[in-house]
Amino acid sequence: MQESHGIQGSTAASEDGLLRLGGIDYLNALPLLWGLGEAKDGMSMGYHVPSRLAEMLEAAELDVALIPVVASIASPDYRVVPGIGISSYGGVRSIRLYYRESLSSVKRVGLDTCSMSSALLTRLLFREVWGAEPEFVPCDPASMKDYLAGGADELSGLDAVLLIGDAALAGGRYADWLDTDLGTEWTRWT
């Protein structure tokens, strides 16, 4: 299962001559970004959520970015940097689906707006593995964490919630919610 890839987009540097890099500000991306810091000679570094990095690369606001694997096929001009990516075979703890009852009975799923690949993975697992066709609702991860903890009434009606990255890693257990690691589920299925 792949989450993100190092992708080179535009080959032109910014107007000030800097190579513009985009990284994910999540714990699981640190080994790939270690040593880059905020800026180095000849480059600038910015940190954003995966979905925003994909938007920025597409808009030519970045030259190189760690983007979701599903976004890497968006442009024939993108070049994947070999050997760089966030991937797994098995559990990862950074892609967690919380749910109330059986996965086959889920009707509404809150999808973390920071995600692209994990959102697609969730849709595929529901349809192909769990035999359900729920409604998928884009939601802010902070609101979903609040909802899981008993708050965020505006999200009532969700009976499953997808969290990625640090929000998933820090998620823990919530009363009245079960959870599963989507890395484990994907490996089991494939």
TrEMBL record:
GO terms classed as biological process: menaquinone biosynthetic process
Keyword terms: Lyase, Menaquinone biosynthesis
InterPro entries registered for this protein in UniProt: Menaquinone_biosynth (IPR003773), MqnA (IPR030868)
Keyword Plastid annotated: no
Gene Ontology MF annotations: lyase activity
A Pfam family per the record: VitK2_biosynth
Protein name (Swiss-Prot/TrEMBL): SsuA/THI5-like domain-containing protein
